[in-house]
Amino acid sequence: MLDTIEHLRDTDFPSIRRNRLDTLQVNLGYLCNQQCLHCHVDASPRRTEIMDRKTIDDVIEFLANKGISRLDLTGGAPEMNPYFKHLVKAAREMGVHVIDRCNLTILQEPEHEELAAFLANHGVEVIASMPCYLEDNVNAQRGAGVFEKSIRGLQKLNALGYGSSDELIINLVYNPQGPSLPPSQAELEPAYKKALFDNYGISFNRLFTLVNMPIKRFGSTLLSKGEFESYMHALKSSHKDENLESVMCKSLISVDWQGYVYDCDFNQMLGIGLGAGGGRTLLKDLVDNDINNGPIVVMDHCYGCTAGQGSSCGGALS
After folding, report:
1. pLDDT tens for residues 138-165?
2. Which domains does the chain have, with CATH numbers?
């Protein structure tokens, strides 16, 4: 795989600092039952990195001591971590809002048939990857048969009450198939809702449009096709300063499977640690530290969050 980091270091991206930390995003491991082209984590069934019980307990201690309001669980497929349910239960008992970034197909896998009911019983918000409402497009990006399994997963969640109220929330995520910015989130959402409801009886709360980041698997593909420079030009030429105040790193830190901390999930994948030095810091060593108003490490990939309507883990920024 071609590495993009040396193409990203020399940057003129504006300097930014964190506001108040309210979200802890935790990558529970890179193991996944899928292998998607756009995946910036390079997750796959072959990955073996999984967060262990000791580090899970460090996450729980951090939640208890820092007044975190949101726990955002990601992977890989976060549900494949054997301590996923333990962490969800502990966070919910503290009143922390839990988000599961679910690929939907995991709900059909052996040993995970009861996962949907578990999520509903604990009021977990589901954010699910669904890069298109057309079968051929989804299968081209995420693998043969993924669309059908995703539809079945959504129907299972709907049957449990997801998508019909603000109590059990399910939001879908759109990614472009190639090196282009996503269309308007506000305009694409109604098209998604109509197509999925008319054809499959599926309801959901919101659609989030995300920009593909020029790192890991997608970045390597851009380099191999000679499209990296043109894609970066598209991101930079579409940058909007007004998006800077809403980027996710202003209120979030990211934790990898070993417990090391980063300014965002993308910096995690590039191995760039928290703060100005970019060094390696463990979450457990931050329990007694105040990281509010701290500096955020930026590189050229940060333009992916500020281009056009903006992009974050919660979709468009403007």
Report:
1. 777 776 778 899 999 999 999 999 999 8
2. 5-306 (3.20.20.70)
